[in-house]
Fold each of these.
Amino acid sequence: METFSLLLDGLAVAAQPSNLMFALIGVMLGTAVGVLPGIGPALTVALLLPVSLSFGATGSLIMFAGIYYGGMYGGAISSILLNTPGETASIMTAVEGNRMARDGRGGKALGAAALGSFFGGTFATLGLALVAPFMVMVALSFGPAEYFALMVLAFTTVSAAFGGSVVRGLTALFLGLAIGLVGIDKLTGQARLAFGFPELRDNISIAVVAVGLFAIGETLFVASQRVGADDKVEAVRGSVWLSLRDLKRCLKPYLRGTALGFMFGPLPTGGAEIPTFLSYSTERRVARGEARADFDDGRGAIEGVAGPEAANNASAAGTLIPLLTLGLPTSATAAMMLAGFQQYGLQPGPLLFTNSPDLVWGLVASLFIANVMLVVLNMPFVGVWVRLLMIPRPWLYAGILTFASLGVVGAQGSVFALGLLLVFGLAGFVMRRFGYPLAPVLVGAILGPLAEEQLRRGLMINQGDWSFLVGSGIALTIYAVAFLAVFGPVLWRLLAPKGAKTEFGMDTD
Amino acid sequence: MTHGADGAGEGRPQLAGRAGEGRPRPRVPERVSVPHRGRDLGGLLIAVALFALAAMIVSDASGYRIRRSYAQFGPEIFPYLVAAGLAALAVLTVGLAWIGGFPARDRLNAGPVAWIVGAIVAQILVLAAGLGFIAGSAVLFGGAARGMGRRPLVLTVLVGAVVAALLYVLFRHGLGLTLPAGPAERALDALFR
């Protein structure tokens, strides 16, 4: 019951005009970047981090969450009409969605996607509100050993889940950890890896890392393989409103997708890719009758759009559970939101719920509002977003680069930061080219310093005795899960039949 | 393109993008296609870079002042752990490069990449010379758009100048962000005062 009164208080915060405006800006930006292939919510939050400092903590976090949710909605549009997923979360939507569009049922696919996003987002946000208080109670009993174990879990799973190779994932993670080392050591004041540059003594801003890796690296990567052919955008044909029959076909996929997304979102597996994939394959497997025929004849089945779209929005809500209650980001966008909290001197975790209940519950309540805004933006106004797909690529990417440099120059005020941006951009480009995932770099750079703090605090309490790390049952359990996360896929690959291997190389939500 | 030319099994969903070869498909996941056999020079270079990074961290950490505390370890312990991990991964990367374990790469389209990198460097130089945000961004925007195939350069730089001027007014006067000011910015500021 207490949850609901807190949620009502949160609703009062979220309904303040300025916060409503931030939510609206967030969902509109989110939908826009979701539609545009090549830029995603993680990058957008990174670009806005420096700029948003004047917005206040609650306002900017509401905006960031709106971007996250909006990205999940918008990604469906480019998947369906362009067959180019705007986000990795919408990859599975492209399969049946684009077939439906070519079959003249693009409107229906868009409608099913938007409603599915609303369904998944709303119910999973409700789940978030119910589960979070329990997680907070568990988390309050955690000490340095448990927190360190949790971070190891986040490190290993984020590295192992994507990139197709554990070695490449872990390499990306350790690059992130190395980036996190730079700067003054908090406990002793020792400058590390600064090489006499005053800019490096103040730590490398996570925004510079993220913008460099994603915006600059991505642009270079796209440019490096560009041949010049233009994309074919399918026109929206047919109404976006679903008939009762369509709704009936969608209901079960919505339920299953929401459940999958909500279950996988909080796990440190790197975002929405796994639940959307599972949702798609479930729908394909259980399809009967008309749905079966739609899947098999290549006309495009509405279930194949409905399930994954509910799943990706549900996973976005699920991701917020460990982020808010433990301070653990399990996707690239969540990692950027954590950086957003840190920018305001806030550390997500159990204490956040007692210290800033207004912010936490205002954020959760604003997610419901954002969902309503999004379904309105995406059903009647879908045509507006489709126009975004018509922006010529040279202008689009030149604009992204300009905005990226604006954020960095504006926040850091130094040309040195631009040099760093170029370095990380080149690194991101090489990593993309060689199939390294990028999310582990961010997670390493953000969580590395926190993990170090827990480790050294634990060592200090235990007078240099390392065995405290394995002295708690909870910590040991977490290590076991982390071990499985790294070696489970290897075992699975050995056991799975040949040809059933699917590997992902991208990771930006 | 590497996509779609590999063994996704029967009944498995195709991961996006079957239609249209050779267009930019930024978010489509790369799947590991048939590895090209033989050593991968690029991969070996990555391994060398990882070794160098590990060595750099160790040489930096070994110079920290020794402190005695209850922890028995000071600020050097975490860098050593990270360096050890990087060195181990460098060894594994050598192995990966040796067996051709990296995904197949498309031919590098070096021209556009050089244009964009050049545009960023040019922007840094313009800003360092104190010519201001608008001039720097115009150079960046123009160079990048030219690199992605839009010409002539004069047009793209002009468009960049207009875009940058709009961004400057929006963020400097709308949101109060401090941006490097040169002659063009001072003229605009005078207009808004």
Amino acid sequence: MKNLLPLMLREWLQYRFAWALLVLVPLALSLLLLSVGTIQLDDEMTAMAPQQLSLMVAVLSMLITATVLLMLLGTTSLFTALGSPRRDHGDRSVEFWLSLPSGHAESLLAPLLVHLLLVPAAALVVGYLAALPISLVTVGRVTGVGEWFALPWGQILPALGALLLRALAGLPLAVLWLLPLVLAAMMANALFRRWGLPVLGVGLILLAQGLERLFGQPVLADTLGALLVNAATSLAGAAGQALTSEQGSMPLEALPALPAWALRDLAAAYANMAQPLMAGALLVSAGLFAALVAWRRRGASAG
Amino acid sequence: MTTADHIAPSTDTLVSARHLSVRYGRKTAVDDVSFSIPKGRVVGLLGHNGAGKTTLMKALVGLAEPAGELSVLGLHPQRDRVALLQGACYIPDVAILPRWARVSELITLMGRLHPRFSAERARQLLARTSVGLGDKVKSLSKGMVAQAHLALVASIDARLMILDEPTLGLDVLSRKAFYEMLIDEWCDGERSVLVSTHQVEEVESLLSDVLMLNEGKLVLSISLEEVDRRFVALSHDPAVAEQMAAAHPLLKYRVQGGSAALFDGEPPPHVQALGRRVRPSLVDLFVALTRKPELDRQHF
């Protein structure tokens, strides 16, 4: 696995401009639209005092910015990872990569690490930073630029930073929960090319329906649902508590409690790993990864 | 016809194959071939399309699973593929560099991936071509991609280079430039090259040895010096064609101003007296030893 870092560097060299565009274009559009468009507030927000309203708008705009960037980069990265087994077949450069002294396992692992872990993590960090100018423009339009500078940044940034760290620490767990589905989709793409995802989707639906009708057990549907829910709660909400439930609904009151909430939530996410479903997910993932390595080795030898 | 011969014996053998076969399902792509390649040789691998050349080369670099004994640089190609590719470099086809990459990025990647790659040497070699470091592969012509690929691979301090149809589809200038760079910049008397190509006449002057595959079987494994000693071509007047044919030559063919016959070994003196001895070309030898598929096809 000593070539893992160079192979990850290849991902950076190949996708860096696409990633930059995925970050910069939505941000630029958002800034433009927020600058010239109309921002509508509901009655509850309109009734707030300017200071509270500014805080609410700032925190919401920052959370939305980070979430949108995570969803955007995370989704495109996920699909890039799903297509990675066959991506070099189009220009036949797979022959070039196979002629280099790197193993099949590390060649498959590098894009997974980059696209499932590093890119979403970078999206979270960039979202956290990019949220500042977005919040400046938004607050500036709603209550005035001066209100943005008057906000209690000493409380806001650590609180949102705690949320960021919570999501970053939960990201590997989310990937582990999703790994069986991701690897199954990669295998399907490897075997069936562009029909891979439809074949896998239809196959899973038919299998789930069949199991339920034959045995009265929605075991597959339940399992898939549990994997998705566990992946989502690995990022936030594992403890099953709303962010502001303990300290009231106003952001200023909830902010100081966020770091402690994030820590409890993260502990709950890790505790949630200790269940048979995770053991099963890891076993299935190991089997699917071994199958992908075998497929790559066999594909390399196909005449 | 010779099968399972050996190229000139040497104490420092880079490739050794004994009873090597490769099967794809029920099809035998390489059938019981035995040969060896010592250091310092430039070996041509000749064969028709589908003769098994690519499969044999893939087996040599661990990308195809063979039966029999195979050792490359003293390593088991499949089991030790990563270690093997550190000492042997391989160009599997023409124009297969990733189209998204810039040449400088490929140098960076090769520098990190290959412990024996010299980025400085790659830049020196590329400076002798029309390929720029900032050029994207997708903006290069096929000939320029082949030059860039050879410059990258020739910057690896390897002992063996394996080239599978590296100039297929290139124009004559690109082919010439490719082979000039190969001979001038890589071959040093210690390293060996195994090259498969259809342009037999273009590489003949570069080769020291030749392997000929026909339908998966090795029909000739010989040095070019040995070719000159063993095979005899007689240029003769068409009037004596029947007498020549009676001596059972390997091949009868046209040459400028008459006919010629190719023999495996010295023909009888009375036959030699009928013609003038000329040097047999590799192309004629190739046709003579692998013509059966062509004749078979004429029946359909």
Amino acid sequence: MSMAFHFFKRDLRRVWWLYSICFLVYAAEGIFTAFYPPLQDWALVGNALVARGLISFSILHLLVLVVLVAQLVQEDPPVGSTAFWLTRPVSRASLLLSKTAGLGLVLLIPVFVNTAALSKFGFSPGDLALAAAEILAHQCSFVFPIAAIAALTPNFRWYGAAAIGLAVGIGVVLFIPANGFNGGFVLDRNAVIALSNTRAFLVESILIASGGLVLAHQYLTRRTRRSIILAGCAAGAYILIAGFWPWSFGNVAPIHADHAPFEPSKVALEVRPIQLNRRGFPGGGFAGAVSLGIYIQVPKGFSGEGIDAALSLSGIPEDLYVRVRSANPKMTTPDGTAIRTFNQIPAGSLSSDSAVAAALGGIPVYSYFLGDSGSAVLAVVDTDTFQRYRDSPVRIVDDFDLVAERYQVAAEIPIVKGGQFTFGRVSVRIMDLVPRPDGVTLVVLKSTILLSPDSSALLGSNPSDPRLRGDPVFLLVNRSRREAVPINPTITRTGIGDSYLSGMLYQQNDQMPFGGGGGANAPVLDKHWLAGATLVCLERVPVFEFRKTAEVDLLKLGEPWLATKNGYEHTLAMEVNTPQAFSLPKPEYPEDLVRAGVEGTVVVELSIAKDGSVTWAKAIESPDPRLSALAEAAVIKGRFKPAIHDGVPSAYRMRIPISFSAQEQMPDPEGRVPR
Amino acid sequence: MNTVIETHSVTHRYGKVAAVQDLQLSVPEGSIYAFLGPNGAGKTTTIKLILNLLQPTEGRATIFGVDSTRLGPAEFERIGYVSENQQLPDWMTVQQLVDFCRPMYPRWDTNFCSKMLKDFLLPADKKMKNLSRGMRMKASLLISLAYRPRLLVLDEPFTGLDPVMRDEVIHGILELTEQENWSVFISSHDIHEVERFADWIGFIDGGRLRLGESTSNLQVRFKRLDCVVPEGSHFASPVPRSWLMPEISSRSFRVIESEYIPGESEKRLVGLLPGAIDITVADLSLREIFVGLAQSSSNNS
């Protein structure tokens, strides 16, 4: 024991400066994380810089750890026959103990610093302890393997070459099509659920156990050949599990049973298994998962502009709430023709809006991206491709899980600087309110999610991850104005050795990129708007789940949708029976507007639930904002006969024109046009 | 006779190449055993096998009666090992190196260490990496002698040392062995370095031990025979294996007899070279014996 301490002290004297650098890097990151600087008008630039800064930290971690571990181990290398200690009266066990102590110190630095940083966010001691354990486990999964490499190589040059080889090997394994390394070592209370990513758990366990075992074996026996064989076996197990693990339960495809298959005419929906590449299907991903493909027929050369409008015209029932991840958005038709895909239209922009709106008591939500969680694949298919593909049978050959979910308010706080709430293992704090010259006030938020870094993929892939309690949605809600704006979370990983995802959430009134929609029409979040607003956290709540063995053998795509010159209008009749209005109140038309000659047609988009009620309405075209409000107020009170699909009442989204004529003073309730 | 090192049919192969084959070595306690051989003969490999730096492919070696593969701290407290192949912590100063080694050895003699530090003119505050080769070797000797080991294993300790420094080191070793009755096992490719003080010689070549005995025995056994022979003489039958480097010129003949028996060896010479007269028998230096053995084995191979 005393000899182990003697060598440990010597190692500390040798590499104290590397320990110091290591500590400084982690401490700098911890300070950065805990006291995130409020962003000014350069918010976007700052955000980008922060993201890159954090990436730099993670690279620095890596470099410092790689060098530090090598210096520690190779000071007394257990390989070769020239090491100083080999002919000195020190037992191998003592030496191993001293090295373990040295590595333990390496492991403790990030555990200590990160836990200290996390303690700023109001997490409970129990959660912090679990997080510390996760950090430790994660650190071990990196430190032990590189220590083992250092123990099997006689000098830094060999070590560097071996480490690069290992990194390349892991990269190759991760590129095996069936693979997707998500999840990680999780010691959560609800670990059983979180560990549904069994592969990731096993992979990390292999890294820790084999790294430690090889290191110990090499020091205790100095049988390098046997140690290498041991490491080779571990590498084989890693490749098998990380690359070819055939089961994954992390990806669920919550599709309402009523809607699979679904067969509208103008939009072709395909429910197909992902990860059938070993069985002759294209694409990668996971056995048993399904993805929803939405095929919209467009002219050749289509750029993608206006896809939102096309989607809103598609008539996809709103409660077809789709949460699917596509592991590989590349798709081809069965005859090999590549389908142009626009990767991952977020569920939020398809239909979860209505669920969110329902949670807010019917307040419509402007559709920004809701993050990269649950997504569908939007495939844009030109006419020829569509014609060839539409009659192709698509079979579902595996089980898939179906989950229906709804939202509920989990937390709500006033928007004031310093406001903070903790939701499960997510902490959100309002860091600053920054007025911009254009009147918009930036709400600078920070979310900290208590996760081990490699669990970050769970964020999107495992909606049932208990730590996230259903992948929460954050919104700024002004209930008096009945307006809500989802906040775009920018989740950044802080790399190896950290324990959390540090995300900056901010609201902006800028146009969101393709697929987001609603940006231009979103309310201006000025100080007046924010004064009456709250920060709301919605959690997803599974309504029901079941597992279905799908035996759909023929899923024909819809009839061709002939493109017109504008590309989006369909000319064929819908096969779905569209809703019919029972009652549609006349909108108010105040006399002052009549007298002022304010008139025209307001096109209102509305959602009609299965029971025929209007869940939300929004004017999308209007000659005057005042008419918009009047039209919306009227439409929201309407009652409809719901859309019937396959004999079952279904939710539906449609648009109707509401005319305001100063002469007639009457809208034409019969003039609605299903779009 | 007690032995400190023994090997029993030790073989070590690097792949298919045998660096040491069927080695039978016995180092008596208290001796200064010079382990000689040309470069690449297997000297360093043998030392590494003895000290468990390598494991034998076949056979076994013992040191203080303990199997080499089971050497532990208790044995290494009594063994000093100096080799230019050994890695030293270059980042330490000489003093730091001494301070680092001291706690490992219960019998560390601080006064002795200080004396050597002084005698060797070692700069205590200089880092190892900044020392000359000779100084590094001295520092290595220092930390291998200060705990008064019972066995000192030196692997080519004089390589790179200038003559003055070599003499200093030799002097130091000699002095210490006389005082302490230590055993020294010293490998070298140059007999000249060790002939002054070695009392046992082992000669290895091609991984095989050609001889291993005391210098007094060797000097009795190895003699040079010179004689005058008639013009055009030739051997009546094949020369015996005990003859090394036989040289015959027009009227003279010279050979190293490795199994000299007074009277018998002369008779055998006359029998093989009829007409040989004026036979003289001369003693050989260790160097001459070594060169004879080396050249002979070179010719045989």
